[in-house]
Write a structure and sequence with these properties.
18 helices
Length: about 500
C-alpha cells in the first residue's frame, strides 16, 4: 500500500494543482470576459472529451500494455508496441483534428444560443476552440503511456507546469493585450502544443532499451485490437454519460444559464480532482497483478484503493452537499451567484461520488481485459439517460438536468458492481460495500452535517472560508479513522515517525 499511497499523493499534488489554479482564475475570467464568453471557454473540456473518445481506446490500451510489458524480460516489445500504437493514434488524430476544425464552428453557430456575443465573435472563438482541441489530441495518449510505466511524478510535473503557464499566461494576455475569449483560446492552443511535445520526449526517454530500434508491428496491433475496440466503445459511451448533461444543457438552456450551469458543474464535479489521481495510480498495478496472476494481491489492492478513494472524495462531497452556498461564496465572492449554483452543485456532487467509487470496478474490468460488460451497461444507460435528461431539463430547468447524473450513476452502481464482482471472482458486492465504502460515507456525511447544523452559513467570505476549512479537516479526520486500512496505514506512518525521532 505504501507505493500506492505515494503515487496517489503525487497524482493529487499534480492534478490537484492543475485544477486548483484553474479554479483560482475562474472568477477573473468570468469578470473580465462575461458569463457568455466564459460559457464558450467551458466548452473546451467538453469538446476535448468528445474528440478524445474517437482514439479507438488506444490510450487505455497503451496504459495496460506498458504496465504488462515494460517490467518483462522483453522490454523491446514495449517499445515496438508503443510505436505501433502511436503511429495509429497520430494518424487518427490528424484526420479527426482537421474534421473538428472544419465542422465545429458551423455546428456551434447552429447549436448555441448567445444573447450578447456577436456572430463573428462566436465563429472566431469556435474556430480557435477547434484548433485547441485538435492540438490536445496526443496528451491523454502519452499521459496514459507514462502512467503505465509508473512515471507518475513526470506526468504530474508536466501537468502542473502546463496548467500554471496556461492560466497565468492567459490572465496576463487578457489584462495587458486583448480582453477577449479568442485571446484565451489562442494561448490555450499554444500551451497544448508545447505540452504534447514535452510529453512525447519524456515518454520515449522513459521506455526501456532505448538503443533497440522500433518497428511498426501489425502483429501487435492485431493482438490488442479486441481490447482496444472494447475500450473505445466504453470510452465513447462513458464520455456521453459523463457529459450528456452539458450536451443537452448547451442546447436547451440559454448561453447565460449554461454559463451558470458550468460554474455549478465545476463545484459539483470537484471530486474528480481526487478521483483521477487514485484511479491513475491503481489501474496500472491491477493490470500488472492480473498479468502475473496474483489473486491475493489483487484483492488487497482493490480493497485498499477503494478505501483510499472513499476517504479522498466523500468529505469533499459532503461539504458540497451541506455547504454548497458557502463553497460558491468563498470561491466567487458573489452571494447571488453562489445561491444560484448551490443546489445544482450539490446534486452533481452526489453523482460524482457514486461515479468515483465505480471507477474501481471499472478498472477491475479493464485489468482483466473485460470490455463487453462495461460497454453493454453504458449503452443501456445512454439510451435511458439522454431522453430522461431532455425531459427533466424541459420540465425543471438546470436542477432537473443535474438530477440525471446521480440517477444514472446509482443505476450503474446497482447493476455494474454485482456483475463485475461475479465475473472477476471478487466475492459478494455487499461485503465490499459494507466493509470498504459505508463506514467512510457515514463518517464523512455525519461529521460535516453536524458542523453545518452547528455553525450555519456565514455572512462574510472569510467566515465561509473558515467554516469550509473546519468542515474539511474534521471530515477527512473522521473518514480516515472510519476506513480500517487507511487508519492502519496512518498509525504505521505515525509510529515510524516517532521511532525515527528517538
Amino acid at each position: 500500500m505504501a507505493r500506492l499511497r505515494t503515487d496517489v499523493v503525487v497524482n493529487i499534488l499534480g492534478q490537484g494543482w492543475a485544477v486548483a489554479i484553474s479554479l483560482l482564475f475562474v472568477p477573473f475570467f468570468v469578470s473580465r470576459l462575461g458569463i457568455e464568453n466564459y460559457a464558450i471557454i467551458a466548452l473546451l473540456p467538453l469538446c476535448t472529451a468528445l474528440l478524445q473518445v474517437l482514439d479507438g481506446g488506444l490510450a487505455v490500451t497503451l496504459n495496460r500494455e506498458m504496465a504488462r510489458l515494460a517490467p518483462s524480460t522483453a522490454p523491446h516489445e514495449a517499445r515496438s508496441t508503443a510505436w505501433t500504437l502511436q503511429v495509429v493514434h497520430l494518424s487518427a488524430g490528424i484526420f479527426f483534428g482537421l474534421s473538428a476544425i472544419a465542422l465545429l464552428p458551423m455546428a456551434g453557430m447552429a447549436w448555441l444560443q448567445p444573447k450578447e456575443v456577436s456572430a463573428s465573435e462566436l465563429h472566431g472563438a469556435l474556430l480557435l476552440l477547434a484548433i485547441t482541441v485538435a492540438l490536445q489530441w496526443p496528451i491523454p495518449f502519452l499521459q496514459n503511456g507514462l502512467m503505465g510505466l509508473g512515471r507518475q511524478p513526470k506526468v504530474n510535473g508536466l501537468l502542473a507546469v502546463y496548467s500554471t503557464v496556461l492560466n497565468v499566461g492567459a490572465a496576463v494576455l487578457i489584462t495587458f493585450a486583448d480582453s477577449s475569449v479568442s485571446t484565451f483560446l489562442g494561448w490555450a492552443g499554444a500551451c497544448a502544443m508545447m505540452h504534447s511535445i514535452a510529453l512525447a520526449i519524456v515518454f520515449w526517454r522513459s521506455l526501456p532499451c532505448p538503443i533497440v530500434p522500433v518497428h511498426f508491428e501489425i502483429r501487435r496491433l492485431r493482438e490488442v485490437m479486441s481490447f482496444s475496440a472494447g475500450a473505445a466503445g466504453i470510452g465513447i459511451t462513458g464520455v456521453i454519460l459523463t457529459h450528456f448533461d452539458r450536451i443537452v444543457g448547451s442546447r436547451l438552456l440559454t448561453l447565460e444559464q449554461f454559463g451558470y450551469y458550468g460554474l455549478a458543474a465545476t463545484v459539483g464535479r470537484s471530486a474528480y480532482l481526487l478521483i483521477a489521481p487514485v484511479f491513475s495510480a491503481t489501474f496500472p498495478r491491477l493490470s500488472a497483478l492480473v498479468a502475473r496472476p496474483d489473486q491475493a494481491g489483487m484483492h488487497t489492492l482493490y480493497s485498499s484503493a477503494t478505501q483510499i478513494m472513499c476517504v479522498a472524495i466523500f468529505p469533499l462531497t459532503a461539504v458540497v452537499v451541506w455547504m454548497g452556498f458557502d463553497l460558491g461564496y468563498a470561491w466567487l465572492g458573489n452571494a447571488s451567484t453562489a445561491g444560484a449554483i448551490a443546489e445544482v452543485a450539490a446534486v452533481l456532487s452526489i453523482g460524482a461520488a457514486l461515479n468515483g467509487v465505480m471507477h474501481l470496478p471499472y478498472g477491475l474490468q479493464l485489468a482483466h481485459g473485460m470490455t463487453r460488460l462495461g460497454l453493454q451497461i453504458n449503452v443501456a444507460l445512454v439510451a435511458l439517460s439522454l431522453p430522461v435528461a431532455v425531459l427533466l431539463c424541459r420540465q425543471f430547468g438546470p436542477i432537473g438536468l443535474a438530477a440525471t447524473w446521480p440517477l444514472t450513476n446509482a443505476l450503474y452502481f446497482m447493476v455494474g458492481v454485482p456483475l463485475t464482482h461475479r465475473m472477476t471472482g471478487f466475492g459478494r458486492a455487499l461485503s465490499w460495500i459494507g466493509q470498504d465504502i459505508l463506514p467512510a460515507a457515514i463518517a464523512s456525511f455525519t461529521t460535516v452535517g453536524v458542523i453545518h447544523a452547528a455553525m450555519g452559513s456565514s455572512q462574510t467570505r472569510l467566515g465561509a472560508i473558515t467554516v469550509l476549512l473546519c468542515s474539511l479537516v474534521a471530515g477527512y479526520a473522521s473518514t480516515a479513522v472510519a476506513a480500517t486500512k487507511v487508519r492502519q496505514e496512518l498509525i504505521e506512518i505515525v509510529s515510524r515517525g516517532l521511532r525515527l525521532r528517538r
